[in-house]
Amino acid sequence: MDPLGDLMPWIAACSVAGLLGITLFERLLPVLPSYGLLVAVGVAVNEGYWSWPMALALSVAGSFAGSVLFYGLGWGLGEARAGALLRRSAGFFGMAPARIDGCIAWLRDRGAVFALFAQLVPTVRLVVPGIAGLLRARPLMFFTATALGIGLWNGLFIGTGYAAATLVQPNPNATATALKALVALLLLELLGTMIWRNFSRRRQAVGLAASTAGASPATLPPMVASRRQDAADDFAFFRAWLKAPLRVAAVVPSGRALAAAITAEIVPDTAPVIELGPGTGAFTRALLARGVPESRLALVEAGPDFAKLLQERFPEAQVLCMNATRLSAADPFGGEKAGAVVSGLPVLSMPPRAVIAILDGAFHHLRPDGAFYQFTYGPRCPIPRAILDRLGLKAVRIGRAVANVPPAAVYRISRRWQRPPA
Question: Which keywords describe this protein according to UniProt (predicted)?
């Protein structure tokens, strides 16, 4: 059975319009994955339906036309409406809303480089033209980079199909080849992310060591975990993301730069501290490096696997395996108020009711001068203004972590007014 291979004669019957139209359709309504379609085109090239140059040129033209349409849509709707539309439709493209905001941040910071490489990442390649439009990216720069990226992507998979048809004679199965290509893509994306993170960690460790130079050596556990542990954490996050992509909303744990940025205002006197969604403990290690005693940490983690891992790594901390929306019902420090809540939760992918419950519970446990720290991959505060107004809160951006994958910003959320101490 080879549905992709069976589709090619029908497309070829329409000649130029057939291949141009199907690649445009795939870009606008990705019900048929591009890598599968392009592998089938490569098989068809080997069978003589099109020449290699014609197949590549027509497929690039169709994909490029779809990118132009999405760019124009983003430009026409404007940043606010286009951004809201992309976040609402993120699930249609197989992405979490947080990843949309990550793409926005990356395109702002990297421009043409990100536009090119985005075309080599599944799903991301579909939404980036719309993001470029809402950001009013320079058309010549963006479309040049996009056309080059599309050419590389299409050429890779057309070539894969052509090679498969040459090596597997007779009757190569285009559908089976496409599925193998998908597995290889996911592994390459994970490997590339891990290589970049390991490269950036070397630079991040230097900055983090400098920022904690004044702390007592007794309170400074090693901030750079072994490479084996880092790799284990990456794979743990990847497995958790596969099980629940909207809850985890990250393929790999947060980097050292982000951990340093989100804990920058934490000092030993801030304790006790509550951490929400600690995952494998990237922020937890940074809190310990800031001088917060391990016994003065409460780690709230909804994932049982992560909760067990945290209990093993931080035995003196309180690990609460529970949903953060129920935080108000917990009493981790026997009535003592916390000085800070550090959040690693993907609040952008959560419904407003859940965000309100989390913030309400957090400030229930915070001192009057306490603060809630939240990161985001997007260009603005991840807590909507309406929710801040409703709860009497204010948000201030206190830092960026450009070296993180993807780049992130950190916000401090606090009360608009503070009651004087009793």
Answer: Cell membrane, Membrane, Transmembrane, Transmembrane helix
Name the strands in the sheet holding 297-301, side by side, starting at the edge strand that comes first in the sequence.
318-321, 297-301, 273-276, 338-343, 366-376, 408-415, 393-401
According to DSSP, the residues that pair with 340 across neighbouring strands are: 273, 371
Query: H or E stretch including 221?
Result: none
Question: Considering only 180-194, 253-267, 299-313, which range has the smallest mean pLDDT?
Answer: 180-194
Ranges 30-44, 101-115, 328-342, 390-404, most confident: 328-342
DSSP tag of 412:
E
CA 163 to chain centre: 33
- Produce one character per residue of 262-289: b if its CB has 16 or more CB atoms within 10 Å, e if not: bbebbeeebbbbbbbbbbbbbbbbbbbb
Tokens 């395109």 -> residue? 107
Pairing, β 338-343 against β 393-401: unpaired
Burial of 411: CB neighbours in 10 Å, binned 0-12, 13-18, 19+: buried
Distance in angstroms (rounded) separating the CA atoms of residues 262 and 258: 6
Does residue 62 contact residue 27 with C-beta atoms inside 8 Å?
yes
Residue 178 has pLDDT above 80, yes or no: no
pLDDT on residue 221 = 45
Give the CA dihedral 209, 215, 217, 222, nearest 10 degrees. Answer: -40
